[in-house]
Amino acid sequence: MDINQLPVECIATILAFTSPKDACRSATVSPAFRSAADSEALWTTFLPSDYRQIISQASSPSTTSFLNSLSKKALYFHLCDRLLLIGSGNSSFALEKESGKKCYMIGARDLEIIWGNSTQYWTWNSNPISRFSEVAELQTVWWLEIKGRIEARNLSPQTNYAAYLVFKLVEDRYQRRGFRERPVLLRVYFEGAEVEEGKMAILDPREGSLVAFEERADGWMEIEMGEIFNELGDDGSIIFHLKEFHDFITKSGLIVEGIEIRPKTD
User: Fold this and answer.
1) Nearest-5° angle of CA 165, CA 171, CA 176?
2) For labelling alongside 185, which of 13, 28, 95, 213 has CA 20 to 30 A away?
3) In what order do the strands lie in the sheet with 237-245?
4) What does the pLDDT look like over 60-70, one tens digit per residue?
5) For 258, left (φ over 0), alpha (ψ -120 to 50), or beta?
6) Nearest to 137 by CA among 103, 104, 102, 169
7) What does DSSP assign to residue 153?
8) What integer pLDDT is reported at residue 161 of this predicted model?
C-alpha cells in the first residue's frame, strides 16, 4: 500500500514520532503529508502537555486570548519566536524550536536578592534592551547573594538543563568593583539534595585573560551557572545560586536581568 493513501490521521500519528523540523519537511512529500503536517492533532503533540496552563499565565489577558485563537502550529512557532511574559511580567517562557522543550527566564524581580529592596545596596532601573520592565543594578555590597528557583515539574522531562546568569557590567570601569578581584560561586542543585562544590567564575576578567561568559544576541552577557538533569519532574525545586562574600572587598557595577533555564544542547 502506498503510504500516501493512508488516512491523514494515520500519517499525523506517524509524524508525531518525529520532530517539528521533520514534520515541516514532510509537507513537501505529497498533499496528504501536507495536510497531516499542518493538522491540529500533530501540533498538539509537539506542544507541552500543559500548554493551556502556561498561556493562561500570560501577564496580559489579551495575550492569552490571542494565543488561544491561534492554530496549534501557529501557537508552537509563536512560542518559539516570541517571548511570553508570564505572571506579573517579571519572568518569561519560550519553546526551543528544534525540540519543543520548555525554556524559562526568571527576571531579577522574581529572584531572591539579598538586600535587593534597599536602595543603599541595589537600585531598580529600566533598560532599553531588557525584555523586562526593570533590572537590578548593584550599588555596593560586601555580601552578594542571589537565588532563583523553579519547580522541576514545570520543565520538560528527560532533559538536561543548564542555567545561565544573564547580566551586564556598568560601562564606567571606575564604577565596577570587586568582580575583577574575586570570583563568584555559582551552583545549581535540587533543593534538599547534597550540594556539590559548584564553579567559580570571574565576571570582570582582565584584558587578555580567559573569559568565562559569552555575549548574547540580545546584547546581554551570560555565564553558565551549572547543569541538572530533569528526569520525571518529581524532584521538587531546582535552586540557582550565586554568592560572593568578603569582609574587605566591596562589589558594585553588576546589572542583573535574570537567570535563564534552557535545554543544554552540546
Assistant:
1) 70
2) 95
3) 112-113, 143-151, 237-245, 184-190, 199-201
4) 999 999 999 99
5) left
6) 169
7) G
8) 98
Residue tagged 539579598 (cell numbers): 114
Count the residues in the chain.
266
Rounded CA gap, 115 and 118, in Å? 5
Encode 142-164: b = buried (16+ Cβ within 10 Å), e = exposed.
Answer: eebbbbbbbebebbbeebebbbb
Q: Residue 178 is placed in which grid cell?
A: 570587586
The CA distance from 230 to 125, in Å, is 34
6: exposed, middle or buried (C-beta count within 10 Å: 0-12, 13-18, 19+)? middle
Query: Does residue 113 have a pLDDT over 70?
Result: yes
Among candidate residues 99, 136, 102, 143, the one with its CA nearest the CA of residue 119: 136
**pLDDT digits over 71-111, tens only?**
999 999 999 999 999 999 999 999 999 999 999 999 999 99
CB 94 within 8 A of CB 242: no
Residue 190, C-beta contacts closer than 8 angstroms, at least 6 positions apart: 152, 228, 235, 236, 237, 238, 239
H or E element, residue 152 = none
189 residue type, one letter: Y
- Which residues, in sequence order, are CB contacts of 7 under 8 Å at separation 6+? none
Q: How far apart are CA 113 and CA 257, in angstroms?
A: 12
pTM listed for this prediction? 0.92
Rounded-to-integer distance, Cα 190 and Cα 258, Å = 19
Give the three cell numbers for residue 219: 546584547
